[in-house]
Amino acid sequence: MDSLDRGRGPARLLEPVIDGAAWRPEELNEANAGVFHWSEDELTEIDGAVNAYAASGAALIDIIADNFPLPVSGATLDAIRHELKDGVGFTLIHGLDIGRYDRRSQAIAYLGIGGHIGIPRSQNKNGHILGHVKDLGHDYDDPQFRAYHSNNELKFHSDSCNVVGLLCLRHAKSGGLSKITSGIQIHNEMLKRRPELVEALSVDIYRDRRGEIPEGMERTWKVPIFSIVDGYMTVNGGGQYALSAQRFPEVPNFTQDQLDGMEMYTDLCEELHHRQTFNPGDIQFLNNHVIQHSRTEFEDWEDEDKKRHLLRLWLEVPDIRPIHEAFATRINGIIVPGTELQAPLEAE
Length: 348
Fold this sequence. Notes:
It is a single chain. The chain has about 350 residues and is of the alpha+beta class. About 45% of the residues are buried. The two termini are about 35 Å apart. The chain has helices spanning about 25-30, 40-55, 75-85, 105-115, 185-195, 195-200, 240-245, 255-270, 325-330, and strands spanning about 35, 90-95, 120, 130-135, 165-170, 175, 180, 205-210, 220-225, 225-230, 230-235, 275, 285, 290-295, 300, 310-315. It is globular and about 60 Å long.
């Protein structure tokens, strides 16, 4: 793996941002930045840790770095954390042989590796710390369902956590490619073309909680798309949840500049995106404060045992980047009255 290693300067409002996570797709293709491969020794170590934890009978929700030791893999894990925090903002790690494991051991391996990156957090009102990205026949445009339970193309967005991770168990018959883009590079490009639209997206934008409302909170929350805290820029793309929040009467309508800004933002996500193909065993981690992600529409297999299936983690990673106070209230996961943490082994 080669890093772009471009350094960082203090971010200022309405000025170009110098940041390791500001990249164009052609730069990634040339440098192979963010890409890792487990060594044989590391895979042997991971296998031993999986077998030991499985034999212990301990609960999946209790896996942490301390009870899933990976000393041989320490240098690689350090490099992954560095790339997420100060580098290009994403990693893709090849080589995990998930075919050797049953589903519980697959979950142990993923939660164990993830536990060395951050702390798993609840991804929905059901308290799932282990998510399942799988087509359950839901409609992407239906606000009562999560978009990742459809086979539709997803709009570019960022999740409500510091780092989101995906482990590929099975890929689709066709399609389902990962699309990632640098939110900071989008900011810089928009600043060159239409600076007034950057300004319009640097104020609070309402987001739909889609029924997952923590105690004492409203059904929407708000945060700018572009925000600067302590000299660091964070980007929280509008996506479908910003658009669906417009259905509520208490949410102000977008201004024309905000509508134009959202459209330009979406267009630039497409223009500047980098695609990654997932194969079984591949693990992707994304820093949600700098990377926007989506996926292409996919055609799945008819056989249930062959259908596209990814495991997902939401990770809290302390000190990964100074962030807007509104977003800081969400990185400990989605907790609503009655939520209990669990790690289901199948999509629900």
